[in-house]
Amino acid sequence: MTTAHPPIPKAELHLHIEGTLEPELAFALAERNGVELPYASEEELRRAYSFSDLQSFLDLYYALMAVLRTEEDFADLANAYLARAKEQGVRHAEIFFDPQAHTARGVPIGTVIEGLGRALDAAQETYGITTRLIMCFLRDESAESALETFEAARPYLDRITAVGLDSAEVGNPPSKFREVYALAREAGLKCVAHAGEEGPPAYVWEALDVLGVDRVDHGVRCMEDADLVARLAVEQVPLTVCPLSNVRLRVIDDLADHPLPAMLDAGLLVTVNSDDPAYFGGYAHDNFTAVRDALRLDQETLRTLARNSFTASFLDEATRAAYLKEVDAHGR
Ligand code: ADE
Ligand code: ZN
Q1: Which ligand has the shortest distance to the CA of 97?
Q2: Are 76 and 29 in contact (CB under 8 A)?
Q3: What's the half-sphere exposure (Cβ side, CA atoms, 13 Å) at 164?
């Protein structure tokens, strides 16, 4: 009997937990909570997963969150993700969540954090996956709303490793959130931000210079600015690239044209991630195999991407070193 090769060990650093809501779980939670969905079946919902840009995706992404109401719902969502992540070789996951998308619907922030926390607390034992939580602010909401959200999260900061910035990018530059990022850093949190997905290279500069981010999420549009590429390479600022997402949201026309190889050649610390895998057609390893096939990446390049994922993580040094050893030993 032959056994398939296990997927290479990797860290997932760009993953919206709400973007892991599969149609099957959405319908189960809708039933449990008495929420009516505007789709007759899972198949009909799946047929709506055809996007023209980031906003067309976000409209569906926020609408479907209506089914997430209780601590148990958030725990179930995170457990479903972790079970899939394990199958994909994910050994460490740094997970985004969007508190404002839930508090705006009357779900208390404590319900969200305690629910996710319940699943993450058991993740090491149940799935062999270490985890961190990253609280994102919705950039199309006001700076005041981000500040209120941060204050509401203060009692739970021991569960949160970093703050992030997501949602509709164009017209909502990083500098809008200078104040809340300063507070987060004062509180000892790490900082990341989506920048250079649909937005221009100037937004990546702002994320670095105004917000002081430790990583840039997406960042693919940095390739339009040679000075920016040089800065990112010299400082080894990690970029959490999401190839299947880029194609589905039409940031890139075709996976075969993805700038990932050029980014690696430029000396950037690039990682490969899944973003919203329930919507974009693949989890972490699916993204690895998709870029391998479309861009003809060799085994050593895949190993570099896996190593980068741990290098770019917020893990303690001892755990990082142990995971890097696992990558080096993989397939040898
Ligand atoms: N929220 C969930 N996925 C996102 C993405 N790809 N860009 C911005 N905000 C998001
Ligand atoms: Zn994202």
Answers
A1: 1
A2: yes
A3: 27
Predicted confidence (pLDDT) per residue in 268-277, tens digit: 999 999 999 9
Total-model pTM: 0.98
Res. 2: pLDDT tops 60: no
CATH architecture of 10-314+317-327: Alpha-Beta Barrel (3.20)
Catalytic residues: 197
Residue 6 structure tokens? 């296990």
Q: What is the mean pLDDT of residues 296-308?
A: 98
Q: Is the CB of 166 under 6 A from ligand 1?
A: yes
| CA atoms of 294 and 71, how far apart (whole Å) | 40
Dihedral sign of CA atoms 70, 72, 78, 81 in order: negative
Contact 169, 54 (CB under 8 A): yes
Residue 189 DSSP one-character state:
-
Predicted pLDDT at 1:
47
d(CA 198, CA 314): 26
Domain locations in the chain as residue ranges = 10-314+317-327
pLDDT exceeds 90 at position 200: yes
Q: What is the pLDDT of residues 206-247, one digit of tens each?
A: 999 999 999 999 999 999 999 999 999 999 999 999 999 999
Of 273, 241, 248, 275, the residue nearest 49 (C-alpha): 248
Distance 331 CA to ligand 1 centre (A): 33
pLDDT of residue 3: 53
DSSP 26-64: HHHHHHHHTPPPS-SSHHHHHHT---SSHHHHHHHHHHH
